[in-house]
Amino acid sequence: MCPGSFDPVTNGHLDVIERASRLYDELVVAVLVNDKKHGMFTVAERIELITMTTADCGNVVVDSFAGLLVDYCRAHQIDTVLKGLRATSDFDYELQMAQMNRELAGVETVFLPTNPEHSYLSSSLVKEVARFGGDVSRFVPADVHARLSEKVATRGD
Ligand code: PNS
Prior knowledge:
There is one protein chain. This protein has six helices and five strands; from the N terminus they run βαβαβαβαβαα. It has one domain: 3-Layer(aba) Sandwich (Rossmann fold). By secondary structure, the protein is an alpha/beta fold. The chain binds 4'-phosphopantetheine. The site of 4'-phosphopantetheine has 9 residues, from strand 1 and helix 4.
């Protein structure tokens, strides 16, 4: 499974998801339901956007989860978590989480290096640039860009 906030899904996420989907029979992309962090997109919207943009993969299932990642893995007989690594700055925290998840439930983590073309991308930066009127059309799929533009125009969130 490939877990994350995906608020919203970017071309960087999609690159990792598409490549991961070729490595496994089935890939579950799971959106974290985080009651403490109010996102720009609702979990239902994030799921819809990921579903639309990963349809061509053919073996991607999109879901959400709350609570511990390892509990979702246990409940769905998932033994491998896949994460994209953008830079060494991602590594320290990802390593800690990978070791904790393995200790808690024996869940293994596989790291996939992101395409350098996308290594500076994050949902937070894309939202910030969009909020201030910057052109983010090359960082997200067209459907996501359209929804992002609507959000910025209506909420400024
Ligand atoms: O896209 P993000 O926000 O970097 O994804 C982080 C995510 C969702 C993978 C991580 O926060 C997570 O696994 N949260 C679930 C709660 C949990 O299991 N915490 C303990 C991690 S060792």
